[in-house]
Write a structure and sequence with these properties.
- This protein has two domains: 33 residues; 105 residues, 2-Layer Sandwich (Alpha-Beta Plaits), CATH 3.30.70.
- Helix content is 28%, strand content 14%.
- The protein has a three-stranded antiparallel sheet with strand order 2-3-5, with no helix packed on it. A two-stranded antiparallel sheet has the order 1-4.
- The longest helix is centred in the N-terminal third of the chain and has 28 residues.
- The N and C termini lie far apart (87 Å).
- The relative contact order is 0.16.
């Protein structure tokens, strides 16, 4: 019976000690002027500031891609799909589709390193929310060039508009 009371006393004292540590840190960091995330950054009207090495949604330059499939082979979750066809005049391939499935992508940037022509890299886009899984599949070959290359914002509206276009915007360097 005495051991039972010791166990109860020890359990209560450890919970009180943990709560005291939590209360102490809360009092140290409490700031009455602190605002919510959306008040501080005015999201989604203004983009969220991200660090220089942030790994956001990809940027892709179709004009320099040689369709070597190195990025798709390096992807550990197989979320990159490259459609290509052989060029009739000359040698090489023509990229007809470069699709990334962001429901699978884990933003590891392993697809960036093996690219011999540096046509794919990680961008700084923070959020690409959508209401359907179809909106998370982005075909960079059908996006407008300024969006795919990163000069404009990659947003759900641009992705939805790219699904209406049936032909790729650019054929690549071998045309």
């Amino acid at each position: 019976m005495l051991q039972w009371f010791r166990n109860i006393c020890e359990a209560v004292s450890t919970v009180v000690e943990g709560m005291w540590v939590t209360l102490r840190y809360w009092l140290r960091t409490y700031d009455p002027e602190r605002r919510t995330f959306t008040e501080k950054y005015e999201y989604p009207e203004l983009p969220v500031p991200v660090s220089a090495r942030y790994r956001g949604f990809h940027r892709y330059d179709l004009t320099t891609c040689i369709a070597c499939d190195q990025c798709a082979k390096a992807c550990p979750v197989d979320c990159i799909y490259i459609d290509k066809e052989r060029v009739t005049q000359g040698k090489g391939f023509r990229v007809t589709g470069f699709t990334i499935d962001y429901t699978k992508c884990m933003f590891c940037a392993l697809c960036v390193e093996p690219c011999p022509v540096d046509c794919i890299f990680m961008g700084a886009t923070h959020d690409l929310s959508c209401y359907s899984r179809d909106g998370c599949i982005v075909d960079f070959s059908k996006l407008p060039v300024e969006v795919a290359w990163g000069r404009a914002t990659l947003n759900p509206t641009a992705v939805a508009n790219s699904k209406v276009i049936s032909e790729p915007v650019h054929g690549g360097p071998n045309q």
